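Journal club side-thread
Mid-discussion, someone asked how the predicted structure for our own chain would compare to the paper's figures. Pasting it here so we can look after the session.
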Amino acid sequence: MTRLTSAILFSLFLACSAAAQTDDAAYCKKLGDYATRYLGDAGGNGGTRPDFDILEGIAKCNKGDTAGGIAILEKKIRSKGFTPPSR
């Protein structure tokens, strides 16, 4: 393989990796919003607020640990009898 071919393949790999991270971050946010909306505790202003598990999952998502955040949020959603939203 020539250097040019290697560079092109490496660039494609990086692009695919970045796209997957963006998709995971978007899905993580979607799960956090879903969990807060449907599983949150009643707030004083008529809305809902997330419990500690949901907050932990959202915090992991915000710190870049999307795999950890997604796992926590999906588990919480399933434990309450809901189906997580699709990616």
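Post-session note: Strands lie at 41-42, 48-49.
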